[in-house]
Amino acid sequence: MKRSVKVPVTYDSEMTVEELIAKMDEANGEIDLTSNLKGREIYLWRHEGENAELRFYHSYRSDMCDTMFSGTLRKGLKGSQLDGFIKKPAGIWGVFWTIIGLALLLTLGLAVTILLSDTIDAQFVLLAPVILIVAAFIGASLLRFDKGRLADINSYLRKFTESENTDVLGEDLEADERD
Q1: Residue 79: its pLDDT value, please?
Q2: What is the C-alpha to C-alpha distance for residues 84 and 97, in angstroms, rounded to an integer?
């Protein structure tokens, strides 16, 4: 399976769009955000019209949401269809670009220091690639999907929508596991 920034998914359900929206509201109502939820997996829904968003917190209040679903509810032939992407939320992208920006600023600062100095110190020359390699590693790990979390959110969405269509993502994850 390719690990991309967005994983396309579709869930066909016999429930109507209105029933799915009511189920989203009911699922959110069951979660008491004022109680101690630290360390628990939480699925939070948000919807505006036909647009739906699901945020998956692996450890609520201990880490930020790092996997989410964003899609559209559409009327189908039998019921409804939830069509969208499992992706990284804006918070992860903000952290990614902050790390990349800081690494580039540090590298630029080192380059200016090296160019303006009379003697070139080998430590400064070797420090710039190290900073860029570390930033690239951290950035790549931020944008990489964890297979377990991807499988968790996929199975939750399939159960939630009572999906009847073929589970393409689940089959890809199983094929990766066999290989």
Answers
A1: 84
A2: 24
Best mean pLDDT range from 75-79, 93-97, 110-114, 161-165: 93-97
Maximum pairwise Cα distance, the chain: 76
Distance between CA atoms of residues 60 and 64, nearest Å: 7
Q: Does residue 147 register a pLDDT over 90?
A: no
Nearest CA among 35, 38, 86 for reference residue 58: 38
| Contact between residue 165 and residue 126 where contact means Cβ atoms under 8 Å apart | no
Which of 14, 10, 109 lies closest to 52, judged by CA? Answer: 10
Q: For residue 20, with 0-12 CB atoms within 10 Å meaning exposed, 13-18 middle and 19 or more buried, which class applies?
A: buried
Whole-prediction pTM value?
0.78
Across 151-164, average pLDDT: 86
Say how many C-beta atoms besides its own lie within 10 A of residue 56's C-beta: 22
